[in-house]
Amino acid sequence: MRSLNQARAxxxxxxxxxxxxxxxxxxxxxxxxxSEVVELFRAxxxxxxxxxxxxxxxxxxxxxxxxxxxxxxxxxxxLAAAACMHHFTAAMLYALxxxxxxxxxxxxxLLHRIVPxxxxxASGWAEGRTQQNILSPTVTATPVEGGYRLSGSKRPCSLSxxxxxxxxxxxxxxxxxxxxxxxxVVPADAPGLSVHPFWGSDLLAAAESDEVRLExxxxxxxxxxxxxxxxxxxxxxxxxxxxxxxxxxxxxxxxGAAAALVDEVVTRERGTGVERAALALxxxxxxxxxxxxARAMSDDSTEGEAAVAGALVARYAVQDALVRNxxxxxxxxxxxxxxxxxxxxxxxxxxxxLAFHPxxxxxxxxxxxxxxxxxxxxxx
Length: 380
Hints:
It comes from Streptomyces fragilis. Its EC number is 1.-.-.-. It is an enzyme of class 1 (oxidoreductase). GO terms for molecular function: oxidoreductase activity. There is one protein chain. The protein is an alpha+beta fold. The protein has three domains: about 1-100, Butyryl-Coa Dehydrogenase, subunit A, domain 1; about 120-225, Butyryl-CoA Dehydrogenase, subunit A, domain 2, CATH 2.40.110; about 235-370, Butyryl-CoA Dehydrogenase, subunit A, domain 3, CATH 1.20.140. Helix content is about 50%, strand content about 15%. The protein has helices spanning about 1-15, 20-25, 25-30, 35-45, 60-75, 75-95, 105-115, 235-265, 275-300, 305-335, 335-340, 345-350, 360-370; strands at about 120-125, 140-145, 145-155, 165-175, 180-185, 195, 210-220, 225. Strands 1, 2, 3, 4, 5, 6, 7 and 8 form an eight-stranded mixed sheet that branches. A hairpin with a 5-residue loop joins strand 4 and strand 5 (about 180-185). Helix 1 (about 1-15) packs across helix 5 and helix 8 packs parallel to helix 10 (about 305-335). The radius of gyration is 20 Å and the shape is globular. The two termini are about 40 Å apart. The model is unreliable at about 125-135 (pLDDT under 50).
């Protein structure tokens, strides 16, 4: 299909040879625990996609990032899910680099080393809890001399086996004593940080989504991103940017898995022309919403709550279309296709977990209804 070919061309532009390397591995091996897909992603420059050029990265646009994610998802839904966690983390942190004084010298130095050293960043946010905002703190932070002691766990935590850094949302005492959101950057080899088995599903098993525990892990003050009196909106900006990036990138990865099935039906001319056209039209309509939200990010035509609402509308529309398309594609591919191999059945099953990523539809329903009626959008 034209749209999938276009997505794969963008991926090849930024990560030459990655898709070919993935295709050389049988699908079952790509998606199993211990798969090499994450290391292939690292080896082909995957780390730098959304990192600005002045920091050694590619500086891809939101639309290009959505297309790269779609290409990855078409070959390895596990890799697309894992890559999303790194990319949305990168997009948040580097969004703070545009204005002097927003980051400490230690933070800037670290960000300059991500691409040259190909450091993968895992997300220790609330992303595994469907009824919760992805940016809600999941780790407790106790102030100590020179920094904080962190305790808590994140499960599941994608990239847990390959991460170099863990970014965690934490609550720290503000100037008035009330808790405020902050972001801690924790080296994966920090004393007290450990990884434990957690993921039990065959689907997305190569995303390395196990449990990460922090037991009295020390993080120095200069590796914690906080608000300040001079920059009170620092974390608000970060939350908004991070939320939109997450919604678009995670949706794009699952869209890629469905795209591979639709492409198979169209290429092999399964079913009638009317059936194939209906399948392709539904896919392209969903993809158009997702890419439209990405374009709005690029041209700054939509900001703040409007951008968040647009991303969520695209996500839920895509979520519905993918499940329907995957089921219909399997039916059109036929019983012999199902009997002779599990590749397509696993791809179809792999689109369903989009529904499990926060915010779940019930949690967002009332806030969106209030927003559509003219009130503010509050997803807390």
